[in-house]
Write a structure and sequence with these properties.
The complex is a heterodimer of chains A (233) and B (260).
Chain A: H1 3-8, H2 12-19, E1 27-28, E2 31-32, H3 40-71, H4 79-109, H5 112-139, H6 150-176, H7 178-182, H8 184-204, H9 209-232
Antiparallel strand pairs in A: 1-2
Chain B: H1 2-12, H2 14-23, H3 27-50, H4 55-86, H5 93-124, H6 128-166, H7 187-190, H8 194-223, H9 245-257
Helix pairs in contact in B: 1-2, 1-3, 2-6, 3-4, 3-5, 4-5, 4-8, 5-6, 6-8, 6-9
The chains are: A mainly alpha (233), B mainly alpha (260).
Chain lengths: 233, 260
């Protein structure tokens, strides 16, 4: 891959830095990506993980169940009590596996915006891979295949990359300050009240140094107000 | 299949892996990967030792062997964590879990590497007592190597953490401050004598390893049979709860040497 194209790719490491989560083709942290359904290989990887997880739950549930059942005399050693024990242990294992998946699903719901962005990143990287293929084909002697406006394509990809990086960073900030954002209406009212107070103080103290400081405070207040206004929309 | 990639990274560059654990890099994914990969290796070895008896024993041992190692870990982990933080450790619970899992994973890989040898003796020598003793030797050897590596790993991580803590520069250089207030404490002087805590943690670690071995062997005894006695029908568990692991090992050695 040519250096200019390589630079445009959004690597997994970069994604992890930008999102603050462990991201790969199948998972975001411990939550799975909905896009796995579209790719058989990813779906297989996901199914294998599910099997391993269930196996791991069984490994913990069966022996612990065995020790508990023996201690309370629920396991006498005959076939019927053993069958009953296995049925209960398997049932508990399935229930734990379902609860675990439910938990992951809930967790995944809060990452909806990020999953969309990651899908877009995948598309971006796929376009880069396609340009690389065209480049390689073009480098073959006597080849007629070439990207006519390579420069323009690269400019467009640069813009896309920048937008994606910005979006990922914003998403991370919004996710980290979720509780803050949930209180945004209350905060917005507070900030407006504070702004009114600042404006009032500024009018009465325009002449002295104190007034200058107030002016600066007012500027900060206005900026915060504007930012929040944008966010409100 | 990223789980095995994590394990291979651990085997190839243990120092880097431990450093990542110390810094808290991708701890959750490390824990999940090591849990899954070590369980698979233990299950394979468990199935081999169970093959000495019958098919149900194969399945039973494939579940019991990973459980033995992982449940012992769960039982002993809080002791290590709380005692260590009491003596000044700054590591988090998941970092401890990852550290112990590296040991368990190394043991699982070592056991897996012995699998062809065990399989060879299983096929070539149909002697239950010898097979039992051979496996005890393999478990002891892999366990000792694992424990040694864990010991080194813990020393590496806690000492590196301590060095980082000690090398921190004071926020204000006092000689540059003209009027130092009386209540201003020199930061370097405020650092407690950490060496003492470090020594204490080392002793604690040794004690913990003893505890781990004790819990592990007793749990193994509770979960038996792993091998399945020859000529006897399959048993999910042994109904008798008499004697203990160590008595049984001595008895087997005596039997093999012909004293019984």
């Amino acid at each position: 891959m040519q250096a200019d194209l390589e630079e445009l790719r959004i690597t997994q490491k970069e994604l992890e830095n930008l999102s603050g989560l462990d991201v790969n083709e199948v998972f975001i942290g411990i939550a799975w990506r909905p896009s796995i359904i579209r790719y058989p290989k990813r779906l297989l990887s996901f199914l294998m993980t599910e099997v391993f997880t269930f196996g791991l739950i069984l490994i913990f549930c069966l022996p612990i169940g065995l020790i508990v059942a023996r201690s309370f005399g629920g396991l006498t050693g005959d076939a019927s009590s053993t069958t009953q024990f296995l049925q209960v242990s398997l049932g508990v294992s399935v229930a734990i596996a379902l609860l675990w998946n439910l938990y992951i699903w809930q967790k995944g719901k809060s990452l909806k915006m990020l999953t969309h962005l990651l899908d877009e990143v995948d598309k971006h990287n796929e376009i880069i891979a396609a340009v690389d293929v065209i480049d390689e084909l073009g480098s073959v002697k006597n080849s007629t295949i070439s990207l006519i406006d390579r420069g323009e394509v690269l400019a467009a990809l640069t813009a896309t990359r920048e937008s994606l990086v910005c979006a990922l960073m914003t998403e991370k900030i919004l996710r980290k300050h979720k509780r803050f954002i949930a209180r945004r209406h209350e905060l917005f009212t507070n900030i407006e009240t504070n702004l009114a107070t600042l404006q009032h103080l500024q009018v009465t103290n325009q002449a002295d140094e104190y007034g200058q400081l107030l002016n600066e405070a007012l500027q900060i207040g206005m900026s915060v107000h504007q930012e929040l206004r944008k966010f409100e929309r | 299949m990223k789980y095995f990639t994590v394990l291979i990274t651990l085997l190839r560059d243990r120092t880097l892996f431990l450093e990542e654990i110390r810094q808290g890099i991708k701890i959750e994914s490390k824990i999940i990967s090591l849990l899954i990969s070590s369980s698979i290796f233990f299950a394979i070895y468990g199935a081999i030792i169970g093959a000495n008896s019958s098919l149900p024993q194969v399945i039973s041992s494939a579940v019991k062997l990973p459980a033995l190692y992982l449940i012992t870990l769960i039982i002993c982990l809080p002791t290590l964590f709380f005692f260590d933080i009491l003596f000044g450790s700054t590591l988090a619970f998941n970092q401890y879990a990852a550290l112990i899992l590296t040991t368990v994973s190394i043991i699982s890989v070592l056991l897996f590497s012995f699998a062809p040898v065990t399989l060879f003796f299983l096929v070539s020598i149909r002697d239950y007592e010898f097979f039992l003793l051979l496996n005890i030797a393999i478990f002891a050897l892999t366990g000792l190597i694992g424990v040694k590596l864990f010991y080194q790993g813990m020393q590496f991580v806690t000492e590196a953490n301590y060095r980082t803590f000690k090398s921190r520069e004071p926020l204000v250089k006092l000689d540059q401050v003209e009027d130092t207030p009386d209540d201003f404490v020199k930061v370097q002087d405020a650092i407690p004598v950490e060496d003492k805590s470090q020594r204490m943690r080392t002793k604690l670690l040794q004690f913990w390893l003893f505890l781990y071995a004790l819990v592990g062997s007793q749990l193994g005894w509770t979960l038996r049979p792993f091998f399945g006695a020859p000529g006897e029908p399959f048993q999910l568990f042994r109904s008798e709860i008499e004697s203990n692991f160590y008595q049984q090992v001595i008895r087997i050695i005596f039997t093999v040497l012909g004293f019984q």
